[in-house]
Design a protein that fits this description.
Blueprint lengths: L1 H5 L1 H20 L2 H22 L4 H5 L4 H19 L10 H12 L19 E3 L14 E4 L8 E4 L1 E3 L9 H14 L2 E3 L7 H6 L2 E6 L15 H8 L4 E7 L10 E3 L6 H7 L7 E3 L9 H14 L5 E5 L4 H14 L5 E5 L10 H6 L4 H14 L7 E5 L5 H9 L4 E4 L1 H6 L22 H4 L4 H25 L13 E6 L2 E4 H4 L18 H9 L23
Parallel strand pairs: 4-13, 5-6, 6-7, 7-10, 10-11, 11-12, 12-13
Antiparallel strand pairs: 1-14, 2-3, 8-9, 14-15
């Protein structure tokens, strides 16, 4: 009986095809021939299913087995529009996306009736408000980036567009983002794809990212070209320079843009030839040691005419970052800023293992870097930017409280220009024309309308940031501290921000007086070297505290 069920559609299509063909032959009617077409085609498809060897399900379920593949193709859309809950994060919840859409469009972003958050559930966090709130009327919050060696410091907004390359995004998407940044007075990170004509046409402030491929500032063999970098960095539209060591979604992983996807515009922007795969190596060729990184920072700062230069990374081996800090102390060269990218960050495409299991999440990475710089007495000299699913004013405020000086967002601003989280960025079939190089698809993105949405989203988010800062009794969100937040770690237990994410004492790594509770810090500091990223020995367990003096 079960066998008959499996082959019912196949058998019926054969019988219908036979009956229609017989009727067509007897009557000579074209209508019967037309009616026979569908069952005949289905019957032939069933025969093919039975003899093909690639899909077992089709051999056992001819014809109807194709429904499985059809539903599988539409599964993400069905789940997103019909099944997904408002708070299901895959990777952004419908609630978070709706907030961005509403603020970008300038429509009502308020909520009725009460919170839908589980305020007693593990992981919930909240802002502690003041009995004496203030009204903040000016929401143009900024931070000056540029240390003593910077000749052209930059006044950066507290919220900017994170690194997304032309090539990963369409020309229209880049142009809409940059025009919006210009209108609202904030910056766009170019990503490793360098500065394209769409960036220049937009006229907005740029953070020029220099990655391992050295795109637009490379020699024909792929090595770094100081001359070409100096030419690019002289552009007044470029306000800062960012060395990319790694990104949160795929730290330690390079990339390749196939030759077939390289258009003339991409080749021009990146300074690469047509018809050849574009390789982004996992590591830089210009330096291989912490001191080498500091020297590269100084070189770029000199070549750019004194513009702020920093680096971006996702924290992996904590000892390696402490090696960079030691190199700062030994050489006297400081980056003007460090951007911490969390493991929850986005990307156009990456292996599943990297997306899910490699790199430190943003909050832990930020706290570690902030305290490492405090421990070395360098925190006041270096600004910290941070990125990782930051789309609301609360997200920004929490990051500022834990040590950030400003925040970046990639996917948040993608939502502002119409991203629907289709998660087809790597297929060149983005349904809204953002993550594609298909001219017809990207034509759907209206630059004028979307740039207005980008500016509006930024302004409304900054306004909301001013409001919650005022609720905490603060005139400026930069004054947020950990104690302004509470974190529920268990269903019946919560901790003050000072306990969950404490600020460690200034200079503790350099002090002769050790704090017993920070023994792990001292041991890791002792294993760090300014001259090498390699560990002095392979750890097999806790190191003794005497390692501090090693």
């Amino acid at each position: 009986m079960k066998i008959l069920k499996r082959y019912t559609i196949f058998a019926l299509s054969g019988l219908l095809a036979l009956a229609a063909l017989v009727a067509a032959v007897r009557t000579g009617s074209f209508g019967w021939y037309a009616a026979a077409a569908v069952p005949v085609l289905l019957f032939l498809l069933g025969i093919y299913d039975l003899i093909q060897r690639r899909h077992a399900i089709l051999r056992n379920y001819p014809i109807i087995g194709h429904l499985r593949f059809l539903f599988e193709n539409f599964r993400p859309e069905i789940r997103q529009y019909m099944i997904e809950g408002d708070r299901d994060e895959v990777p952004f919840s419908r609630d978070a996306r709706a907030l961005v859409y509403q603020r970008a469009k300038g429509v009502e972003d308020k909520r009725p009736f009460g919170t839908i958050e589980n305020v007693y559930g593990s992981g919930y966090s909240w802002l502690t408000h003041s009995a004496t709130p203030v009204a903040n009327t000016d929401s143009d919050f900024r931070v000056t980036v540029g240390g003593p060696d910077s000749l052209q410091p930059y006044s950066a907004s507290l919220y900017n567009i994170s690194a997304m390359s032309f090539g990963a995004l369409s020309g229209n998407a880049i142009l809409a983002l940059n025009k919006g940044a210009r209108m609202a007075g904030f910056a766009q990170d170019t990503g490793e794809g360098s500065v394209s004509r769409f960036h220049r046409e937009g006229g907005g402030d740029l953070i020029f990212q220099v990655a391992s491929g050295y795109f637009s500032c490379r020699n024909p063999d792929g090595s770094f070209s100081p001359e070409r970098f100096a030419t690019i960095a002289a552009d007044p539209q470029i306000k800062m320079v960012e060395i990319k060591l790694s990104q949160g979604a795929k730290p330690g992983h390079g990339g390749m843009l196939p030759a077939a996807k390289i258009s003339a515009e991409i080749a021009e922007a990146r300074g690469i030839p047509m018809g050849v795969d574009c390789i982004s190596p996992p590591a830089h060729s210009t330096f291989s040691t912490p001191i080498g990184l500091m020297q590269f920072i100084k070189q770029l700062r000199d070549l750019s005419g004194g513009k702020p230069v920093g680096f971006k990374l996702c924290i992996g081996h904590r000892r390696e970052f402490l090696s960079m800090v030691k190199a700062m102390l030994e050489t006297g060269i400081r980056p003007d800023f460090i951007v911490i990218d969390g493991a929850e960050g986005g990307t156009g495409a990456a292996p599943v293992e990297f997306v899910n299991r490699v790199g430190m999440p943003m909050l832990e990475g930020l706290t570690f870097v902030h305290n490492a710089l405090r421990g070395a007495g360098l925190r006041d000299e270096i600004r910290i930017g941070v990125a990782g699913k930051i789309v609301s004013a609360f997200d920004i405020a929490r990051a500022l409280a834990l040590g950030a000086d400003w925040c970046n967002s990639g996917r948040g601003f993608m939502f502002a220009i119409g991203c629907i989280q289709a998660q087809s960025c790597h297929t060149n079939t983005c349904p809204v024309g953002i993550a594609t190089q298909d001219p017809l698809r990207q034509r759907a993105l209206d630059v004028g309308d979307k740039s207005e949405r980008v500016a509006r989203f930024h302004r409304n988010t900054m306004h909301a940031l001013g409001e919650i800062a005022g609720a905490a009794g603060l005139r400026n969100p930069s004054d947020f501290m950990p104690y302004h937040f509470m974190f529920r770690q268990k269903d019946n237990e919560f901790r003050d921000g000072n306990e969950a994410y404490p600020y460690l004492p200034e200079g503790f790594l350099l002090s002769d007086e050790e704090i017993p509770e920070l023994a792990d810090w001292y041991a890791r500091w002792g294993r760090a070297s300014a001259h090498s990223f390699d560990p002095p020995e392979i750890p097999h367990g806790p190191f003794p505290r005497s390692m501090k003096r090693a």
